[in-house]
Amino acid sequence: MDINLPEVFSEFVYEIKFPEGSEIEELNLPSTYRTTTEGSRIVIIGTGENAKFLLQAKYKIPLQQGDYFEFTEFLIITVGIVIVGATIYLLNKKKKVAFKNNPSQAEPIYNKNALTDRQARIILYLEKNAGKTTQAELQKVTNLPKASLSRNLNSLESKGIIKKERKGMTMLLTLIKKRK
Fold first, then answer.
1. How many CB atoms neighbour CB 152 within 10 A?
2. DSSP states of the chain as a string?
3. How many CB atoms neighbour CB 16 within 10 A?
4. Most buried among 73, 102, 114, 119, by the most CB within 10 A?
5. Smallest Cα–Cα separation from 52: which of 6, 15, 11, 90?
6. Closest CA to 55 of 8, 14, 11
């Protein structure tokens, strides 16, 4: 069994339960660990920090009649977990890279630390809605009084963070982003 996760983890904890009756032939673990048993099953519990997660374990199971299926199920589940974990990791990494490499993407032009709590809530909602919403919708979801919302929107507009545009009776709000 080999598990190799290339990123460095600030902290991690792991537990490996080997099949009943298995015998460990070779073990390479990423950190401090201890070995215990649960019945005839070997259990390894370990922790680590600021390290890559690389685990290699070679073991054998003396087969008895009927045991073959338990080992096969364990192996299929283990491989499945590793494949799912690697797929999730790669998909998340791909999304981050796509965002960084796409010049049509833009970054907000504001300092989040310079915003009030209400302004930060407004910006967060705009970011979650592709940078656009109406003032009426924003008022409903934030539950801010109309006067307070209007003041905060005016402040954000004067800072160049949002753009307000009237369409009939509706006020459209757009988050302004800078080009990379």
1. 23
2. -EEEEEEEES-EEEEEEPPTT-EEEEEE-SSEEEEEEETTEEEEEEEESSEEEEEEEEEE----TTHHHHHHHHHHHHHHHHHHHHHHHHHHHHHHHHHHH-TT-EEE-S-GGGS-HHHHHHHHHHHHTTTEEEHHHHHHHH---HHHHHHHHHHHHHTTSEEEEEETTEEEEEE-EEE-
3. 19
4. 119
5. 6
6. 14
Helix axes 117-128, 135-142, angle to 10 degrees: 120
What pTM did the predictor assign?
0.40
Domain ranges of the chain: 2-101, 106-179
Q: Does CATH place domain 106-179 in 1.10.10.10?
A: yes
How far apart, in Å, are the Cα atoms of 175 and each of 91, 118, 131, 143, 160?
A: 27, 15, 5, 20, 9
Spatial contact of 17 and 28, defined as CB atoms under 8 Å apart: no
Q: Are 67 and 61 contacting, i.e. CB atoms less than 8 angstroms apart?
A: yes
